[in-house]
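Internal tracking record. Fields below are filled automatically when a chain is submitted to the structure queue. Please do not edit lines marked as system-generated. If the sequence contains nonstandard residues, flag them in the REMARKS field before resubmitting.
Queue: standard
Priority: normal
Entity type: single polypeptide chain
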Amino acid sequence: MTLKEQIKQLASKYSDEMIAIRRHLHKYPELSEQEKNTAAFISGKLTGWGIPFTANVGGYGIVAIIKGKNPESLTIALRADMDALPITEINEVTYKSCNAGVMHACGHDVHMTCLLGATRILEELKHNFEGTLRLIFQPSEEKFPGGALAMINDGVLENPLPEKIFGQHVLPTLEAGKVGFKAGRYMASTDEIYLTVKGKGGHAATPELNTDTVLIASHIVVALQQVVSRSAPPGIPTVLSFGKFIANGRTNIIPNEVKIDGTFRTFDEKWRSQAHEKITSLAQGLAQSMGGECEVFIDKGYPFLVNDDELTAKSKDLAVEFLGADNVVELEQRMTAEDFAYYSHIIPACFYRLGVKNPEWQEIRNLHTPNFDADESSIETGMGLMAWLALMST
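SYSTEM-GENERATED OUTPUT FOLLOWS
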């Protein structure tokens, strides 16, 4: 029996067990920096399978180790994230979230399950590969500054530095059984923009006695679109969007301050820094010209995610070999962000997508929505491919 056949057989063998694991994880989600019970559950599984691990890395992170032949020859890392989102689930399923207002709406339950499944497969086949596999269960992907950075600072990429790292993320628009790859710059950097416009509020019927903070803030939101439309290099995708505008006055009260929150995303570090300066100077200058002031705080988040060209091309070819050409697609660049990006700026990385769409569903059950769900047949695909990529990269 070939190695590919062995992996497929083991993925099928453990499929039901992994689906049960996914349902448990989905039923008991935990927010960023609160993944205590999730970590304990994963630790219990690893202990039961006889796989050594280190807990509490960068928070509730877990790092498991599988040693093959010649374990000192090279190290390859696989990563899954653990945290859930503050969303109330509306799906009526047996594994519906039991934690009020918390839901695995970004598929991290599937990510953990696939890595656990790959772990079982790799442990059984450890005499078939060279080197060491480092299995990273990472907390707090959804919250700045990100669990990846915390784990890196805690040494997850040290002793020794892995030669490469793989990450897998669900894609609700891609059918189960399929996967997607994109070499090069794949996902955007992300920064949070916080503006506070201040002035002298007062009665709306006497605007001449006030500094109209609402009017100033409105002009700032419109004017800042120039940063993208007139300043962004045309070859660098860029987004500046505002999703929160709080002017807590009344029909006849102009407030003393207005708060505006938004996000800035792009694919170039030099332009990213320049844009921060433009956002700050434009917002402050416009507010001052209209008699007010604007405080600007830019919370610098994740860098852009870059997939190593050579590693991604090889991984895509391996996926074709494992799943068939019809089940492997080329992805488009995305403006969404991922803290896996931190790893990708240190070592060669391949972050690919796992299709989870059930063709019988009438609508896309998208990420970060209360009706997100995954076709659980994708778990067998996900854990099998992850094990295959790891073994064929040693």
